[in-house]
TrEMBL record, chains A, B:
S-adenosyl-L-methionine-dependent methyltransferase that catalyzes four methylations of the modified target histidine residue in translation elongation factor 2 (EF-2), to form an intermediate called diphthine methyl ester. The four successive methylation reactions represent the second step of diphthamide biosynthesis. It comes from the Eukaryota. This is diphthine methyl ester synthase. It comes from Thelephora terrestris. S-adenosyl-L-methionine binds at L9, D84, G87, S112, I113, L163, V222, H252. It holds the Pfam family TP_methylase. InterPro entries: 4pyrrol_Mease, 4pyrrol_Methylase_sf, 4pyrrole_Mease_sub1, 4pyrrole_Mease_sub2, Dphthn_synthase. The keyword Transferase applies. In the N-terminal section; belongs to the precorrin methyltransferase family. Belongs to the diphthine synthase family. HAMAP family: Diphthine_synth (MF_01084). Residues 1-238 form the Tetrapyrrole methylase domain. The lineage of its organism: Eukaryota, Fungi, Dikarya, Basidiomycota, Agaricomycotina.
Amino acid sequence: MFYIIGLGLCDEKDITVRGLEAVKSCSRVYLEAYTSILMVEKSRLEAFYERPLILADREMVETESDEILRDADKENVAMLVVGDPFGATTHTDIILRARALKIPVRVVHNASIMNAVGACGLQLYNFGQTVSLVFFTDTWKPDSFYDKIKENVDLGMHTLVLLDIKVKEQSEENLARGRKIYEPPRYMSIPQAVSQLLEIEGLRRSGILSPEETLAIGLSRVGGDESQQKIVSGTLAELVTQPADAFGEPLHSLVVVGKRVHHLEVEYAQQFAVNETGWRHVARNVYKCALDD
Amino acid sequence: MFYIIGLGLCDEKDITVRGLEAVKSCSRVYLEAYTSILMVEKSRLEAFYERPLILADREMVETESDEILRDADKENVAMLVVGDPFGATTHTDIILRARALKIPVRVVHNASIMNAVGACGLQLYNFGQTVSLVFFTDTWKPDSFYDKIKENVDLGMHTLVLLDIKVKEQSEENLARGRKIYEPPRYMSIPQAVSQLLEIEGLRRSGILSPEETLAIGLSRVGGDESQQKIVSGTLAELVTQPADAFGEPLHSLVVVGKRVHHLEVEYAQQFAVNETGWRHVARNVYKCALDD
């Protein structure tokens, strides 16, 4: 059996009982570690799962799937994935490959940011399409996310914005010279994400994102305990000026609040507001949300 | 501490290790059982969790939250929720109430249909807003879902349609006479859901849903093993004529495929097709999807 097992959001204990039993039955266990990260070191996972973990980077999953699937028709092999297994296209590729090889596959689901984002108090069914935001460089500022946010904003839907992470990236020089030297990992912060949104709004000027009149919610380490998870709500102007360390360690995500926001959503997210009065003021006067007072 | 713990999708083993440890530390454990259901009986959960479970119906969660939260500042109390805790508004209500009472709260996330629907091969970030479909009666056919599907269809987004369940409902006669006699639970089937979609399309006639030219995917018991989970893809005409037992036991969900579908999504979902040739034909000719052949 080939298992693809979601690890959830935080640490070694977020695996499900079903997932843990499966891991312990496996002769080889791969840890996919490039589309997201957990909050703990690999060694802590290995100690808890009682199995050595083979790190599988993007290159390996994409080009060596037959090695990962080797003998999975005769013994159990698992690939562990942060969040849920259906967060990234690559996992459907390896499932299709397994089926072609007549290897039985079992997916073990878990929480991912796509549903755990509900922790901010916005209702999941009011979210439109999800967008990804990549690190801008001086010469490369891809802005297709803007059109998607605009589609959601025009309908009044919320938008979950997933922030870029750079793991095992090479510098341009090292890449050009073929040197397999990797840069330290980088994770986009919420102020940086908001800054990039506003930069593109400044170029495109369709008025969908306003520093003072667009509400947003930054989330970090969703699913962690009170010392880990951090949620901050406010206007884009408030979020962009948060200190760099306001959200702590990665991973970070951002939600742009849509105009159809319900008053119960506003009330719930108010507990996370930089400025509660300001939060309610914009919700009432710009979003036309029917708040009690 | 007040814990709200997601149980995931299928059975007692879908709880996370963190969730299980929390349950075993609790002096009272409530099972919320009206917005969704697991595939197993309460007694099996109790045996595995080693705790008696107090069933909490909608009325209890909404009106007796202080009883549920009693002493949670001094001991541990848990409410167990099928899927993830942020699937229904009610859970934000009880969290707000706990905070007002200065009771610490910890949410333990899990998979829900909102992210596990990725099992059908469609990418989660290509989904628009989620809609709910309720049982029609002769006199009551609420159709606001249609406008929302239209918004998604117009943008080319996929739509997750959540199908009604009726648990602990009273007949009109028993309700009128104040008799607390409840009807057997009812779960909307996928053919019935498609039939209701087409009924409203017949009335509204905006052409967003076509029996022969709209692709959809029915899912049941997502997250179950091969004997449980069932996914069937096809045109609406194909799904509406599936035998009533084609999808087996509840819960069932439906996805309406949007026009921006990527060829890898079509390729993946093809394995579930009623008719693979027809599936590809509509994807290529109606959806204009760039398939290889």
